[in-house]
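Deliverable D4.2, example record:
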Amino acid sequence: MTSLDGRVAVVTGGTAGVGRGIAGVLAEQGARVFVTGRSVPEGGLGEGGITGLRCDHRVDEEVIRAFERIVAEAGAIDILVNNVWGGYERMVEDGVFTWSKPFWEQPLWRWDAMFQAGVRASYLASQLAARGMVARRIGLLVNISFWAAQKHMGNAAYGVSKAATDKLTADMAVELRSFGVTAVSLYPGLVRTEKVMQAAAWLDLSNSESPEFIGRAVAALAGDPDVARFSGAVLVAASVAQEYGFTDIDGKVPRALTLADV
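Output generated by the structure prediction step:
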């Protein structure tokens, strides 16, 4: 895998799950990594090359200050991974599991959370990172998305917000193309995050992925001098592994799912 020495990466929502895996791999590959989010401990995260900046991605002023600090300390942002997302909290309310309820029974706050702390958060972070990338005519924006953008999974708010994320990627790519900046959506498979592993006894993990596997996909894209050929596209992490020839941390390559599989 190509070294990312000298590159500066920002991973939003990077303290746990997929974000943690991405941040760790980018740091291992030599990038100077900043992670942002509400639960981020200010300062170092106890891992080499990773700096934590606490901010609430629903509060514009906090996000702007965090990105200004990153640029002041590191000089530029080369890689942005929009991983932060809202709406997963409080899946059980008053003893009722609401995540899979039809739209007319869904709590309205979930729609707002999916867009404010998800799609809108990605839009603002991309704005802040893209300005410097456009000026330098180089950069990579990765929006973490999922198959719910293309097929009903979970609930309507989830699907619409993920579809919006993919459309955001596609339109950003059009506007960035002449400036040499690439934007892609990246779909993980079933990732062995902390929350998923709490339910491991009830899940089929035979084709699952580690959080670091998603990080390896991002690192491979970031290290590819011809990554612009993918700009605007939806990429599946396991397909990226086949493209670049890397494995998961256990040496396996998960099977790349298609829309028909999910």
